[in-house]
Design goal:
Layout: E1 16-19, E2 24-27, E3 30-31, H1 32-35, H2 41-49, H3 59-86, H4 92-101, H5 111-130, H6 144-153, H7 159-171, H8 179-189, H9 194-205, H10 214-224, H11 230-239, H12 257-270, H13 274-294, H14 304-314, H15 322-344
The protein binds acetyl coenzyme *A.
Length: 362
């Protein structure tokens, strides 16, 4: 038995395949390179949900329906915003968790649309509240990515910015049976419903070993400061038994294909902040050298979080919001897996090996 269940097959899926040895990610029969930045996030949702969600909608209609759903959840989101204002100790992801928890199983709108709409509406509003600003209502005419940026900044985003975020959302839409997706499927298998399953997925994503790495990647770049500081800083971290954030992956033993997609998108956006990208590329190069020296045979490569950090920073998204923004994209996959699991109709219930003491004989 392995404590991390590596190699254990717990589901059959038509949704995505992570080929860790060859650095490929297949989303419902399409290579990641063919979809991220090439088709819209709504089209990716349509691809993932096809034949699973009711109603089964093409991309064009889905854009409209998701816009309507964002507007539909807005009144409820405003109530949660009021509670979050009174509870400043709540982190952004805790506020998002609260927003999803406010949704009801009795709601008439299809639940997969409700959760997909609630995540960007809550995240954008919570970012503004943190900045002492009023949340901005959704605009149903915009795409999911553009509307998130518009709700966050109170102005329409530039085309390039909306395209960069759209690329990111598609790049992280689904990724095999990662911890959050597995969590969502386990909950779905009990017939607890879409909303509870997606909340469970979000709770798993909250952990720093899963969705919480990109903020620390930027902290690392800040602390390193300049090229001279790279190697000493990285070595000191490893000497102290710390992990280098943005590196290593349970499945990928070569470079995570999402890292290159995001690197391309961030380059397009970088503009006058290209020094940041240059420093990041150098840090990546030295980190891979140091990891190979210090952890020989572990095959630790760059993961998705490294360039996620730079992309989200270039879009002026605050670090605390990185995991909630990841959730905007990943909700597409959670929803699809929940729908797929519900069709299986059998509870997921593995076994454990008892290693505790035997009861004392009478
Ligand atoms: N830095 C330094 N050492 C590392 C790193 C890292 N980033 N990742 C793994 N290792 C080392 C471990 O210390 C361990 O070494 P040891 O056997 O000498 O003790 C060995 O590699 C194997 O580590 P595991 O923890 O068994 O690897 P696992 O597959 O469980 O972990 C994980 C994968 C959690 C992503 C890990 O690589 C990590 O913590 N990375 C940093 C955090 C990060 O970037 N997370 C985002 C992942 S992407 C995503 O979830 C969307």
């Amino acid at each position: 038995m392995t404590s991390g269940l590596e190699g254990v097959v717990a589901a059959e899926t038509v949704l995505s395949h992570v080929d860790g040895e060859n650095g490929r990610l297949i989303i419902r029969g399409r290579e990641l390179d063919d979809i991220a930045g090439k088709i819209s996030f709504e089209e990716v949702c349509a691809l993932l949900w096809e034949g699973l969600a009711e109603p089964d909608l093409p991309e064009r209609d889905l854009r409209e329906v998701l816009g309507t759903a964002r507007v539909a959840v807005w009144p409820l989101a405003q109530k949660v915003f009021a509670l979050c204002r009174e509870t400043p100790a709540l982190s952004l992801i805790e506020g998002l968790r609260l927003g999803l928890s406010a949704l009801s199983d009795q709601d008439k709108l299809p639940h997969h649309l409700l959760v997909t709409a609630m995540v960007p509406v809550m995240t954008a509003g919570l970012i503004r509240i943190r900045q002492g600003l009023e949340p901005v209502a959704p605009d149903e005419a915009l795409s999911h990515a553009a509307d998130f940026l518009a709700m966050m900044t109170a102005r329409p985003p530039k085309r390039l910015q909306a395209h960069a975020l759209d690329t990111y959302l598609s790049a992280v839409c689904d990724h095999g049976l990662n911890a959050s997706t597995f969590t969502a499927r386990v909950i779905a298998s009990t017939q607890a419903g879409m909303i509870s399953s997606v909340i469970g997925g979000l709770c798993a994503l909250k952990g720093p070993l899963h969705g919480g790495a990109p903020g620390p990647v930027l902290d690392m770049l800040d602390e390193i400061g300049d090229e001279k500081g790279i190697r000493p800083w990285l070595e000191r971290q490893l000497d102290q038994g710390e992990r280098l954030m943005g590196f290593g992956h349970r499945i990928y033993k070569v470079r995570d294909p999402r890292a290159d997609v995001l690197k391309g998108a961030v380059r397009l956006l970088s503009g006058d902040d290209s020094n940041r990208i240059a420093l990041a590329e150098k840090v990546e190069q030295v980190a891979l050298e140091v990891l190979a020296e210090r952890k020989p045979g572990r095959r630790l490569e760059t993961n998705v979080e490294f360039y996620t950090a730079l992309l989200l920073e270039a879009l002026a998204i605050p670090r605390e919001a990185f995991t909630p923004v990841f959730a905007i994209g990943r909700t597409a996959g959670w929803v699809a897996h929940v729908l797929e699991q519900e069709k299986v109709g059998r509870i997921i219930r593995p076994s454990s090996v008892y290693i505790g003491p035997e009861p004392l004989a009478a």
